[in-house]
Amino acid sequence: MTQNDEIDTHLNKREKYKARLRPYDYFKEFESLDFESLGEGDRFYLQDFGIFSVDFLEDEFTIRLRVPSGRISAEQFSYIADVIEEYDLTVVLTARGGIQLHDLEADDIHDIWKKLNSCGLTTWQSFGDNIRNIVSDVYDGVGKYAEIETYSIVQEMQSFILENPRYVGMLPRRVSVGISGNSANVTSLFANDVYFALAKKDNTFGFNVYMGGKNTDVAQDADIFLKKDEVVDFFKALVEAFYLHGSRFMRSRTRIINTIEDIGMDGLKTHIQREYKKEFQSAGKLQVEKIKFSNHEVLKDGSFAFCYQTDFARLDIDEIKKISKFALDNDVEIRIGVDHNIYLLGLKDKTIPFESPKESATVVACAGNLCPYSSWSIKDETSYIPLSKISEHSIEVGFSGCSKGCGRHCHSDIGLIGLKTNNFGDTEGGARVFLGALHTSGTSVGKTVFPMVPYIYLNDTLLLIIKLFEQSGYKDFEEFTSNVLNRFSSEFLALWFLANLSTKQTLDLPLEENINLDFEKEKEVLLKFFSEVDFLDSMEESFFESIDALSKKLWSVEGKDPHYVPSINRTTYR
């Protein structure tokens, strides 16, 4: 596609902008931009260089830094703190191991952008239709489970796409890439569009390829095995194939998963192979196991790593300076995890250099009210979840402020989406609750169990679920999910939990009953165990009316909700 081509009227709006002017060529105008009078096109193009704003919040700007594999030097971290302090910015870590700065003033954009791009990191292609920050496991190359160090691969992949005029902002849609050479990862990477997962074939370690993941879907097995020195060539072929053959029409169907839905995995592989120019090997055996990580991990060389649990991805200037100084003084490495935590690697002993502000090691929360699409100030309202119990059992929780799923709620033991509703009286906030994800192996994503729980009742609801997990005897919540929760329909689970809450019981799920996700059998079991709950009489062909009736009976608020905090980003779900 060139500027002289006739613009296809069926292309989505973003593609029409690309057809008129490549983002790379637009960058020539960057120096002369007036950030107080941007048009829609300007806002579209600027995302490719790491600058984000929306027209309905035209005076609010965000800049995002790429931090490949989350590896950042102490000097870079300290420098960023100086920039934050100079311009009075707000900083959060991203779910891709990057750094996001908020509250930028229009007059300061040029200066801040130049400073951030001068410290060895870059903002290029951190938003927009690009290969986003490439992620790996935080213990890449140094952990006990590390078989292949992937950082050099990540650097090669980034060098290929970064500031490449053919690809800057010109892909059909964003592409998230994950790679791990570890047999046990701190966080699952199956939510990526492309995931190179450690595998073994013919007694050789390499990578199986998975494609088509996103925040609400798991990447699918492409039946391809790559050796370490083949990954970059495959990546280049994939990028070119997606550039040439990905759909550019309906915006909601332009991800890699949609290409797979349209032409099949074999069709996509054919396009990639045409660019790769070699035959693919069939997949090896996936090398991924479930491991519970501690805040002090022993590394391969006998040194230690310390996990600093952030305030749900938020950091202040003092924290950054404190972490940077400690790293410099003690010659340790800083890495940013995709779990929003800071890792210090290379400690000589099990040092706790400073106490973490929160119990957040296994909780991923999106940007919340710092994002215009979020209907919740997620990071503040995590007070409505039982953090101590979550931490005690290392339960992975994904907390998203909207259905875009930046908190990876579908790839966690317990998933939550913040919502606004008036279906429960005057309460304004709540969460949709997801269970059922088998995220370590990429087997399944979570499914909706409760369409809405008012947040003032969320703690009790989650405590009940965790109590049933404790009573089950399983040591890991994902095992509980696989062996217990996923034997029942989501609707049955909702009624089982509601009936327990209504009767103030904690009855274990009846594994001895042969239900097999059959509605009539599930109905019989509910009537057997909760015959005194009158709402069960309304079950005819589904459980939905009963779920709605009992949840409103339990959770409707009379009078004004004392916990309500007004939000400018209000969305009503009915």
Can you give me a brief rundown of this structure?
With 574 residues, the protein is an alpha+beta fold.
How would you describe this protein?
Among the domains are: about 15-65 and about 100-115, no CATH class; about 150-285, Sulfite Reductase Hemoprotein, domain 1; about 365-555, Sulfite Reductase Hemoprotein, domain 1 (2-Layer Sandwich), CATH 3.30.413.10. Mean pLDDT is about 90; it is low at about 1-5 and about 560-574. Strand 14 (about 335) and strand 15 form a beta hairpin. The protein is an alpha+beta fold and about 575 residues long. The two termini are about 45 Å apart. The strands form four sheets. A five-stranded antiparallel beta sheet has the order 1-2-5-4-13. A five-stranded antiparallel beta sheet has the order 3-14-15-12-11. Helices cover about 30% and strands about 20% of the residues. Helix 7 crosses helix 8 (about 255-275), helix 12 (about 455-470) crosses helix 14 and helix 14 runs parallel beside helix 16 (about 545-555). It is globular and about 70 Å long.
